[in-house]
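Treating backbone geometry as a discrete language has practical consequences that deserve illustration. Part of our work consisted of pairing the sequence of a single chain with a tokenised description of its backbone. We regard such an encoding as a compact summary of how the chain folds. The amino acid sequence and the backbone structure tokens for this protein are reproduced below.
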Amino acid sequence: MEHRLSEPAGLLVEPDGEPRCAVLVLSGSSGRLEADRARLLASHGAAAAAITYFGGPGQPAGLCEVALETFAPVLDLLAQRSEHLAVWGASKGAEAALLLAASDERIRTVIAVAPTAYVWPNTGPGVDGDERPGRSSWTRRGQPLPFLPLVKDWQPSDAERSETGVAVRGWYEASLTAASQEQVHAATIAVEDIQAQVVLVAGGDDRVWPSVPFAKEIGQRRAGRDFPTVLLIDEAAGHRVVLPGEAPGAGDGGLLRGGSPQADGRLGVRLWDVTRRVLELPSPG
């Protein structure tokens, strides 16, 4: 059964029978509504909600100073469906998922696809419509979260350009190198405070940002706290993982994402197997 959500806008898909878990599904900077992914989870026994957290009514036009409180109503709704509350996020959605889990102890599982260990700046205009760069992607209790600024003088090399887009991974790598220790410390997501089980999924050919080094850093910091963490890496995969039955996505905003349909799909099969296990969803047949 499907229900339209209004605050924030989205879609809640409920399974036949009692939900095995309840999952919030977040896209990245594309802003797409991951309705099909929510339907896939629901078809296997999860209550799943896909929402729009920017670009909707009353929201920032771009991924800029998005209030983390935006996610509270749908998390509250999902928590009523199941005690096993999970957040599935990709790219900037993974950034949000980790931030939410670090402060909401109800969240028992995080699936972070192409994650980051740090908060980064806005990728579009804020609620004021101003497109100026250099603002945080997120706020909490009305205050912008500290972030790592992107260096202003970065230019892609010829190898990072093509007719279809630009690979910006080098921009993020250069920005992390250029940041001060104080900036890095302030922008670091407190993944060691997440008591939930965390699944980190990354491709070595990710050309958007260095998700494999980020995932490994997250895993290392969590290892010191002995919290459950699963790390899935495919060195040939790119920024977007393709689950079984999904079609490879089109490019987003002129960005080169790396990988290949074969590698992205291979990593997606591994992710789906782990997803069924950590969310306690029944196996086929």
About this structure: The CA atoms of residues 25 and 50 lie 5 Å apart.
